[in-house]
Amino acid sequence: MNQSRQKEIARLLATQRKKIDALDDKLMKLMADRFRVVEEVARIKTENDIPAYLGDRVRQVRERNAKTGKKYGIDPEFVRTLYTLVIFQSCAVEEGIKFKLTKTKAAKKKPTKKKTARKKA
Fold this sequence. Notes:
about 0% strand, mainly alpha, 3 helices, about 120 residues, Chorismate Mutase Domain, subunit A
C-alpha cells in the first residue's frame, strides 16, 4: 500500500480510531480495577488456605460473562476465550501474592538462633 493511500485511510478512520482508543483506555482502567480486587482476593485466600484456582468459580465466571456478552451481540466463544486469559492471569497474580505473603509469614515465624559465647580453653 502506498503512502498516500495510507494517509487517506488514516484520515477516513481518524474519528473511529479515536473512539476505539478511548474505549481501550476505559477497558484498561477497568482491568486495573479488576486486578486490584484480585489482589484482595489473594490475601483472603492466603489467610484462609484457599487455592488460587477454583474450577467451579472459573466456569461460573466464564459462563456468566459469555451470557452477558451474547446479550450485547458479542460471540460467546470469544468471551469464553477472553475470560480464560483473564482468569489465567488472575490466578498467576494470586499465586504470586500468596507466595510473597507465605514467604513473609514464614520468615516472621522462623526462630532466631541465639549466639552463645564460647569458653576459651
